[in-house]
Design goal:
Elements lengths: L1 H33 L2 H17 L10 H19 L22 H17 L3 H12 L4 H8 L3 H20 L14 H5 L2
Helix pairs in contact: 1-2, 1-3, 1-5, 2-3, 3-6, 4-7, 5-7, 6-7
């Protein structure tokens, strides 16, 4: 009994250190999935709490980052199921609503990262999740399959479809990121 308590306390101390070192990475993943700062922070917090509650299940710290991603994946999808505001939409159906306004070249260069992030955010959640884990985090297809609890073929299919949609969005002249609605048209405001 005392031996298991000592092991649990040792695991919790090690896990605290691991969580601290993985916070930024978990936040990047959560933000890329959720596209919302406060939701990403909540998701990381909940992931950390859940992992501390499951500290007794940790046998090795070798692949702890994947274990944390799996916990976060499950919590993210639980949150999506509970929240009515998360709905998967087909971007092709709303193509006529997407548009581009001309903006100075310097401004466009500064916004490239935000545009790509917004384009990723407009992908269906399952494709976004796989793209973030494979392309941004460097996980293998097998690792992503384990995290997402889907077959490797499904991971490859989602990744392929997500990349194709992302390329189409980024190269489309009709794509306007969700934050661009706050941009002031200088031509209109100067003509008054």
């Amino acid at each position: 009994m005392i031996g298991s308590w000592v092991k649990l306390k040792t695991n919790q101390v090690k896990l605290n250190a691991v969580l601290e070192s993985n916070y930024a990475n978990l936040y990047r993943i959560a933000y890329a999935w959720s596209q919302d700062e406060s939701l990403a922070q909540d998701l990381v917090q909940d992931t950390m709490l859940k992992s501390l509650q499951k500290a007794d299940q940790v046998e090795s710290f070798e692949n702890i980052d994947r274990w944390l991603c799996k916990i976060m994946h499950n919590m993210f999808y639980d949150n999506c199921r509970k929240s009515a505001r998360w709905q998967q939409v087909n971007v092709d159906e709303y193509e006529e609503q997407l548009r581009t306004e001309s903006i100075e070249t310097l401004y466009i260069q500064k916004q490239d990262v935000r545009n790509i992030h917004a384009a990723i955010g407009s992908l269906p959640i399952d494709q976004r999740e796989v793209m973030v884990l494979v392309d941004l985090q460097g996980y293998s297809y097998q690792e992503v399959a384990e995290i997402s609890e889907v077959p490797v073929g499904t991971v490859m299919s989602r990744l392929s479809r997500g990349r194709a949609k992302l390329k189409k969005l980024i190269t489309s002249e009709k794509f306007i990121p969700h934050y661009a609605n706050n941009v002031v048209d200088l031509k209109k405001s100067n003509s008054k």
